[in-house]
Amino acid sequence: MMQRRADGSAGDADYAAIGGVYTDYRKPDPRIGAYILDALGEARTVLNVGAGAGAYEPADREVTAVEPSASMREQRPAHLPPAVDAVAEKLPFGDRSFEGAMTTFSVHQWKDLRAGLAELRRVTRGPVAVLTCDPLLLRKFWLADYAPEVIGTEARRYPPVDDIADGLGGDTQVIGVPVPIDCTDGFNEAYYARPERLLDPDARLSCSAWSFVDDEVHNRFAAELRRDLANGTWERRYGGLREQAEFDGSLVLVVSRPTGS
């Protein structure tokens, strides 16, 4: 039987501990959302697995949300339907129940990736869109020089993109999603041109990888980044990013459509 934390969290991160400020920092960015909408096509009934507080759920579709963490379900805005308490690996829906499905920043939390992907495909008769990070591309981001432990943690947690595509089957496509310079969704790479934002402990806490490193890493990172911002080292190395409208980092959308659709 799958083990879940006290608040229902089914993955390796404890959202009862880190989810309290999540919605203050992780606001869906419409430019990223546009990629998901395009992938869903004409699907009117959409399943959102690992839905959290409802980020990226399309407002013009009939959405059914699944979220195992009670603390995240409680943060869903009143205008969104309540989320079903369930896990990706055991979805409580019949075969081909939905025209489309989506999951964002969630697959690295699943206990059994292949089982979860098979369930997504089982209950969906149309496109499935998975927003995730490619672990092979994480080291493109300057954070690797300041907190390699965090990047290493993310690289271990995020499944290989090929494994996601293989698990979904059908006609699959991997689409790189550029991160805009003023991205409102505060995952680590969202701050590629705004390093000062990651000096905020709550901003770091809203990226689950930071919850896997100890205070020594947090303190060292903050001290070194603060020093390099003050003496100009960060600007000399990475200052060009402040003028770069987008960052082509690790963010990708894996889209699966039934063969022949």
User: Which stretches are poorly predicted, pLDDT < 50 over at least 5 residues?
Assistant: none
What is the CA-based Rg, rounded? 18 Å
N-to-C terminal Cα separation, in Å?
36 Å
Structural class: alpha/beta
- What is the N-to-C succession of helices and strands? HHHEEHEHEHHHEEHHHEE
Task: Specify the biggest β-sheet.
Answer: 6 strands, mixed
Which band does the percent of strand residues land in?
5-15%
Work out the helicity level.
25-40%
State mean pLDDT (0 to 100 scale): 92
Kindly describe this structure.
There is one protein chain. With 261 residues, this protein is α/β, with parallel strands linked by helices. Helices cover 32% and strands 15% of the residues. It has eleven helices and eight strands. The protein has helices spanning 15-18, 22-25, 30-40, 70-73, 113-123, 143-146, 148-157, 161-168, 201-205, 215-231, 233-238; strands at 45-49, 62-66, 100-104, 128-133, 171-176, 179-180, 246-247, 251-257. The mean pLDDT is 92.
